[in-house]
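Before the break, one more example. Copy the sequence into your notebook; we will annotate it together after we see the structure.
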Amino acid sequence: MKHVLFPVLFAAVFLSGFAPAQAADARAWEKSYVTLEVTYKDYDYSQPWNKPTRTIRKGAVVQPGHEVLTTAQHLPGATLVRLQRGGRGKWYDAQVKWMDPHANLALVTTRDELFWEGLRPAELAEVIPAAPDFNLLRWRDGNLESRRVEFSKFSVREGILSFAPRLTLEVNTELGGLGWAEAVTLNGEMVGLTSTKSGNTCQVIPSSFIRRVLEAQRAGNYRGLGYFDFTWGPGENPATLEFLKLKGPERGAVVTEVLDRPGKESVLKARDLILEVDGFPIDVEGDYEDPDYGHLMLENLATRTRFAGDTIPMKIWRDGAEKTVQYTLPPATYADELVPQQSFGHDPEYVVAGGLVFQPLEQSFLRAWGDDWRRRAPFRLQFYQNEHPSAARPSLVMLSSILPDPINVGYQDVRFLVVDKVNGKTISSLSELTEALQQPKDGVQRIEFMPGDSLQRMLLDAGGLNSATQRVLKRYGIPAAQNVVTPEAKK
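Here is what the structure looks like once it is written out:
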């Protein structure tokens, strides 16, 4: 009997000291952590003319100047934003004051002064210690929960809404339903906001990154995140370093490819060996020693103390000699990707022509395959995520599906093909597609696809295309034959 009681008594003693501490932490944050409700357009990219809405709730941390801080997720397409204090009661209409999807941060406010009465701004930790554990806060059923989460590591990852890598705090927890801007705290300070959770690992936007972005934004000199527009590999292979004629100890990361920017020649070249970035030596694994967070990938140096447009000194090894180059950080923009990760500010684009549904190839479409989309989405579409845009083809258009109609008999099962040319014209946007469809040759619409193991070309009757399109729109309840956004409107 004693061997049963001992662990029970031990747990009781442990929890008796632990629970009050957790409760006290929650009470201290009740005036600094609120609830944000967002109603947004939840686009159906498999049927881009559908625009259902969805409502979610997430956390927000009170900041000076009658603002609350939250993540930018779901805010770009928001139709209604509301705030609630104390986890219950009245909702206050709110407005998005500022947001940056690449940083995944947003500031929200409300004009109702009653909301701000008694609230106090939260302190954001300047440097995050590698503590054994942190507290995680979230409102549930009108109560502010404070749960312990375990520190895992600091890493450098792409943002949930951006390809620009930045510092990330990873914590371990078995709690479910996280990733909705829950506040992670330590010793009365916020150390980060959660952004996503996979398995037992929760990714947190660290307060050190948040502080720097907010300080720049409030000073009016925030230029957005920059990034390194080159790919690299570790220099750990002695044969590689010998080929590059490196003198001295083994070190550095090898540039394997540089993004081609029309009219802007990079100061870096393939086979350059990066020895130092912004004063930090780079080791053979492509890491540097961060004074606050230990060994991190060199990509973090693009956002550690810098923003887009800043110039960073780099020491490189080229042609058997060391030299210093001045590298200017390009701004992180979705147009820098051949398959853009996001497309904000407008409804999904599409063109329906004779039952053929054309769409831009974007990651938003690929994510329709669920959380495991990187494995489940069609390989022929996934392939293009590894390619870079060029002046000749800055983006891609795909045939996403075919709505059956007499004009497309025999082609009904064709889908997920990237368009190469229409009537002899190279296609990289829906505006180019619609223009090319107005110029058939010999009464035939000729659509050619990128090389692959499937259909290479499609021929349709040009004379019957418009009437077929109208039949399809009526039969399938599609409100319009197209939604095409001009490049200028996307900027």
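Residues 335-490 form a domain with the N-terminal domain of MutM-like DNA repair proteins fold (CATH 3.20.190.20). Residues 1-18 have pLDDT under 50 and may be disordered. Try to locate both features in your own notes.
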